[in-house]
Write a structure and sequence with these properties.
Elements lengths: L2 E4 L11 H5 L6 E7 L13 H12 L8 E7 L7 H9 L5 E5 L1 H10 L5 E5 L18 E5 L5 H13 L5 E7 H5 L1 H13 L2 E7 L4 H14 L4 E3 L3 H5 L1 H10 L4 E3 L2 H5 L4 E5 L1 H16 L15 E6 H6 L6 H6 L2 E3 L1
Parallel strand pairs: 2-3, 2-4, 4-5, 5-6, 7-8, 7-9, 9-10, 10-11, 12-13
Antiparallel strand pairs: 1-3, 11-12
Helix pairs in contact: 2-12, 3-4, 5-7, 8-10
């Protein structure tokens, strides 16, 4: 069952500069914001810092939720088998624009509509078959790349090897569809280049029981280290993953800073606030009449290495000084 929420009236327009108000579209616009997992209530100005950046940028551009902008929020509740149905349901509400977070939802929306503009957040839109060109996506789709392309998978693996010079085998927490598409191929190639063995730990679902199962299997296999895929469903379940990794004493690298903030060892990621500000700008261009297929996908330019020093200490893990020196943030 889909989750849907309407949140209105984020602020009073009377406090805004007259110039900003003059730029506001006169007609109420409706956008559907669809995420694969997690509560819809998080998608708000009081949610994660990157959501705050998103809504603040929309405000700067002249959009007032509840006055000239309606935001309808949906969650796939971490159940990929329902994403296609959710996409059809959202399309049938006829919003002015759809924001589709992550690859599976983006591809499902591509199948569901060729007319409603889609702003996608996806790892690599070309490799995953969403569009044929970054510069001119064509059709009704544009967006932002949320992970810096497939090469970022190799970068994370390289950092893990740098942190553990004697590392020979890495387990990879990933769903089967991800492992079998170009993202899995990129991970296998990165492992080959690094001279290490990569073992996929395949998730059959995104729930606590399944995470417990795969971590038990890694414990039996005496896994040396773990890399967690950048799937949004994993991010939603970050607390469970981090708890199980800590319990198993397993050094782990993640795809987003969010993990490190709540106890994950290290992450190499995009600057999500930057990405969400660009997402707001794409929405603005399209709502003002631009053809999404003519707007290039935005590719991130800022990346950050985060290390949780407290977690490293708890693991009895000594980070190399050179790696610590390159970290953008050391979280105590």
């Amino acid at each position: 069952m889909r989750r849907r929420d309407f949140i209105t009236a984020l602020g009073a327009a009377a406090t805004w500069p007259l110039a900003a108000r003059a730029q506001q579209p006169a007609k109420m616009k409706r956008i559907a914001f669809v995420r694969p997992a997690g509560p819809v209530s998080e998608v708000s100005v009081s949610g994660r810092p990157y959501y705050r950046a998103f809504f603040e940028e929309l405000s700067r551009l002249g959009y007032v939720e509840g006055q000239n902008l309606g935001v309808e929020r949906y969650s796939g509740e971490g159940r990929p088998e329902r994403y296609a149905g959710l996409a059809r349901d959202v399309v049938n509400t006829h919003p002015d624009l759809i924001v589709a977070v992550a690859a599976r939802l983006s591809l499902d929306f591509k199948m569901a509509t060729t007319t409603i503009p889609i702003v996608s957040m996806i790892n690599d839109p070309i490799a995953l078959g969403l569009v044929a060109s970054i510069a001119r996506p064509g059709g009704n789709i544009t967006g932002v790349t949320i992970s810096g392309g497939l090469e970022l998978i190799g970068k994370r693996m390289g950092l893990l090897v740098e942190a553990m010079p004697k590392l020979s085998t890495v387990s990879y927490l990933v769903s089967r569809p991800y492992w079998e598409d170009p993202r899995g191929a990129a991970a296998r190639e990165a492992a080959k280049q690094a001279g290490i063995s990569l073992k996929a730990v395949l998730l059959g679902a995104f729930n606590e029981a399944e995470y417990q199962r795969v971590f038990r299997s890694m414990e039996q296999d005496r896994a040396e280290a773990l890399m967690v895929s950048d799937e949004s469903e994993n991010l939603t379940n970050r607390a469970t993953i981090i708890e199980l990794a800590a319990k198993g004493g397993m050094p782990t690298i993640y795809s987003y800073r969010d993990y490190v903030e709540v106890g994950g060892l290290m992450a190499y990621s995009i600057d999500q606030a930057e990405i969400y500000r660009h997402l707001a700008n794409l929405i603005d261009k399209i709502l003002r009449g631009a053809n999404p297929g003519d707007i290039p996908f935005y590719q991130p330019t800022k990346f950050e290495l985060s290390i949780n020093l407290k977690t490293a200490k708890a693991l009895g893990f000594e980070m190399p000084a050179l790696l610590l020196g390159r970290a953008d943030e050391g979280i105590e």
